[in-house]
Design a protein that fits this description.
single chain, alpha+beta, two-stranded antiparallel ribbon, two-stranded antiparallel sheet, 5 helices, about 45% helix
Length: about 120
């Protein structure tokens, strides 16, 4: 331990404030066609409801053939699943926007540190 000439110990005072960084890429993501988490969840909800409604209507429309196939000994559920299996793949819409037009906004707080020596 360091001693001063007067016999008192040297003291040090250290204080700090954490720094932070925030990267906001929301504008670039919008330009690339990506949705925010809220928009994405609402979009998926709406798509799911529409798909479930359409599937229910399609299955109900095939009800007579379903009942007939049950009497004939076939596997109607497997046949209906196979018929609709790849339809969504061929009807999908693909978008490729690789580079956004706007760079991300970057906010930096470097923080601070203070070191004081008292002799």
């Amino acid at each position: 331990m360091a001693q001063m000439a007067a016999g008192r110990p040297a003291q040090i005072s250290i204080s700090s404030r954490r720094g932070s960084i925030e990267i906001d890429s929301s504008q670039g993501r919008r330009e690339m066609g990506y949705l925010s988490m809220r928009e994405l969840s609402e979009d998926l909800r709406d798509r799911g409801l529409r798909a479930a409604s359409a599937a229910t209507a399609a299955i109900a429309g095939r009800g007579d053939s379903f009942v007939a196939s049950l009497r004939g000994g076939g596997n109607a559920v497997a046949s209906m699943a196979f018929d609709g299996m790849l339809r969504d793949v061929y009807e999908s819409e693909f978008r490729f926007n690789i580079v956004p037009l706007s760079p991300p906004a970057i906010y930096v707080d470097p923080g601070a540190m203070s070191i004081d020596f008292v002799y």
